[in-house]
Structure formats: C-alpha cells, structure tokens
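Field log, afternoon session.

UNIT: design team B
ACTIVITY: writing a sequence onto a fixed backbone
BACKBONE:
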C-alpha cells in the first residue's frame, strides 16, 4: 500500500496517511499511559490490609523458641489507616493469609498484637514481648507464633526467609464472631500487660453481666484465645484455656509472662496437659475442670447486690487445633460443616448450641 502511494506521487493522500498514523500512535500511547497510570494508582491504593488483594509486609524480626516453633514479627510497608486490633477487639477472631509465591499457595496465620523489645543488643534471645497500644507508629505490626513441620511447605519457608524480606498478606478473615456488648460497656484496659508489676492492678468492673468461655487449644491453636485477650478492647468475660502441648514451659516461653499477668488479673485461667490423650482417657483433672455448660441470661446491668464471683462459668466452648485434637475433644469437623458434638465435650453434655470447632 505504501509503495502504491509513493509511485503515484499522491502526496496529499500520503500526508493524510502519515497524519492518521501519528494520530493513532498518539492515542495508543495516551491509552497505554492512562492504563499504566490507573494500574499505578491501583497498586498505590493497595496499602490497607484487605481480602481483595495482597498487601506488602516486611519481616522485622524472628526468634526460634525451640526447633519447631518461632515468633515472626512483620510490619506493613505502608502505614495502616485502619487499626485492626481496635476494629476487631473482643468481637472477632481473625487471621490473615500469607502467600508463598513460588508454589502459589496461601496459608492462614493468626496474628497477635505484640512487638518484641530487645533488652540486650548483644543477645538476640534477651527480649520481651510488649502489647501494641493505640500508637500509630506500631499500627501495621503483627506477631505470629508458628510451628514448622519438617515436610511442611509454608511454615518451613517462613522460618528461613531473611530479615527485611517482603511478604504478601491478605485479610483479615473472620474465623469467629462474638455477640456485641451494649454500646456503653467499658473497654478493658491492657496497659498493665506492659508494666513490670505482676500483681492485680486494675478494677475490671463491667457495667453489664458478661459471659465466660472455654478454649480447647492444641499446639499453636493457643494464639486464638491469646488474640482475644491481648487485643485492644479485649474480651470482657473470663476465658478458661485447656491447652494440649508437648512442653509448655519451653514451647511458650516468651508468652508466659503475659499469660501470668492475665491469670493474675483473673481474665484467664490456663490448664495445660503435656499428655492430653492420656488425660482424655482417664479424665482425672479434666473432669473436675469441665462441667456442664452454664447458661447466659443476657447483658443485664450489674447491681451492687450481684456477687463479685471469681469462678469461671463458661457458657460456650471453642475448639482449635490439629484435626485429631478437635476429633477427640468434640468430634470431627467436616470441611465447612461443624458435625455433631461427640468426644469429651459430647460426653459432658455439650452440644452444637454451645460448642464451635475452629479450623
Ligand atoms: C484460621 C487458621 C489460623 C491458623 N493460624 C496458625 C498460626 O497462628 N500458627 C501456625 O503455626 N499455624 C496456623 N495455622 C495453620 C497454617 O495455616 C498451616 O496449615 C501450617 O503452617 C502448615 O502449613 P505448611 O505449608 O507449613 O505445611 P503443609 O505443607 O500444609 O503440611 C505438611 C505436613 O504437615 C502436616 N500438618 C499441617 N498442618 C498441621 C497441623 N495443624 N497439625 C498437624 N499436622 C499438620 C500435614 O499433614 C503434612 O503432613 C492456621 C490455620 C488456619 C486455618
């Protein structure tokens, strides 16, 4: 076509063609630039943790508690506007998905509102865990307590990544929602968790009657109730944890001072069993701890005549841990279906109205 145009010396048609060509190119460049600009804008807007897209975080710190367990502190590359700790508080249990980009898989992990503070720069094991307060500089920090399986993919990969490595996170995913307290109910304080003192420091008097719960936790499942008590606006009733583990003192060492303070404050009672299967068979201690479910009458206003009773009266049990653990405690979970309540809790008179199996 070009050849014909030159041969005929048809300059007006040629310049028209040139003009059209330049026009089309300019429009294409414009459209491309606009779509790149839009994509850039979209990438830039992907700063807030969201279920719709992955957001970049970086690994700040890691500490191996023993050969199978480690703590991993991550921080969002861009500051977060939404404070997920305050947003979810006592109302929701939540987790995030971490992407392993080489094998295109994601795994859920339950974050804790904690950051590490090094006491001695020359000794990386000399650190303590502090609860993240409502401070903008810490907004975007998440702490994970992770178990690495010898033949597992993602946890093993996370255990080896260098400090500063970027991770992609998506969420939060709500794993359980609790009923809301009346709007004018108090917010329980968490400042005492960062203080040096161990004693009962504050008055936890709520305006309304609250309800207590049990958590049966296997292994890293313990992070779930801990999220609920360490978060800003924490759970308002008392929590009883029945924890199955191999070595409690070693496997949870950095978290023990916080658990101790929470127990002192009477917000938490933790019973651990290093041979849980045996305990389930014999039920010597567990039978004394776990009674039938109590009933909850509602968030009624507390009167002066109401007893300030320290006893934990759980109305609900949440069960979290490996499949075998859940099966023994309350019967198997079938994918998204809860399945009937059997196992230990079934025998004790608990049912689907008062037991929930988490993943
Ligand atoms: C809502 C939710 C929250 C979670 N929060 C945490 C958390 O805070 N910390 C944490 O460490 N994990 C947590 N998990 C588990 C986590 O998502 C992964 O399943 C775990 O890290 C194993 O993944 P992997 O890729 O390393 O191993 P995979 O490659 O998936 O598995 C490898 C091997 O390990 C075995 N295996 C995998 N998971 C378990 C298990 N839980 N118990 C026993 N054997 C297992 C498999 O049978 C397999 O043989 C959570 C899971 C869910 C659904």
């Amino acid at each position: 076509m070009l050849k014909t145009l030159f041969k005929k010396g048809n300059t007006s048609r040629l310049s028209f063609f040139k003009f059209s060509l330049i026009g089309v190119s300019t429009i294409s460049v414009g459209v491309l630039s606009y779509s790149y600009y839009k994509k850039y804008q979209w990438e830039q807007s992907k700063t807030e943790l969201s279920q719709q897209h992955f957001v970049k975080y970086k690994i700040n710190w890691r500490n191996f508690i023993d050969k199978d367990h480690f703590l991993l502190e991550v921080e969002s590359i861009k500051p977060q506007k939404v404070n997920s700790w305050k947003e979810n508080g006592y109302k929701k249990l939540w987790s995030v998905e971490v992407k392993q980009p080489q094998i295109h898989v994601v795994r859920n992990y339950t974050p804790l509102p904690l950051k590490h503070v090094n006491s001695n720069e020359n000794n990386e094991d000399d650190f303590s865990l502090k609860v993240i307060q409502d401070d903008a500089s810490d907004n975007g920090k998440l702490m994970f307590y992770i178990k690495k399986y010898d033949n597992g993919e993602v946890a093993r990969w996370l255990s080896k990544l260098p400090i500063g490595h970027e991770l992609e996170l998506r969420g939060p995913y709500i794993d359980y929602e609790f009923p809301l307290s009346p709007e004018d109910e108090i917010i329980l304080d968490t400042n005492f968790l960062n203080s040096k003192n161990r004693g009962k420091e504050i008055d936890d008097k709520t305006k309304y009657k609250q309800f207590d719960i049990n958590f049966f936790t296997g292994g890293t499942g313990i992070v779930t109730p801990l999220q609920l008590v360490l978060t800003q606006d924490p759970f308002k009733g008392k929590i009883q944890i029945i924890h199955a583990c191999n070595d409690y003192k070693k496997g949870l060492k950095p978290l023990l001072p916080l658990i101790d303070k929470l127990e002192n404050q009477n917000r938490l009672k933790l019973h651990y069993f290093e041979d849980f299967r045996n305990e389930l068979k014999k039920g010597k201690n567990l039978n004394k701890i776990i009674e039938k479910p109590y009933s909850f009458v509602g968030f009624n206003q507390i009167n002066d005549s109401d007893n300030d009773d320290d006893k934990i009266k759980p109305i609900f049990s949440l069960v979290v841990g490996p499949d075998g653990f859940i099966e023994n405690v309350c019967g198997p979970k079938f994918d998204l279906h809860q399945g009937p309540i059997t196992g230990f809790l079934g025998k004790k008179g608990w049912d689907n109205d008062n037991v929930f199996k988490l993943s």
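LOG NOTE: The pocket of flavin-adenine dinucleotide is lined by residues 95, 107-110, 144-147, 149, 151-156, 175, 220, 223, 322, 359 (CB under 6 Å).
NEXT ACTIVITY: expression trials, pending approval
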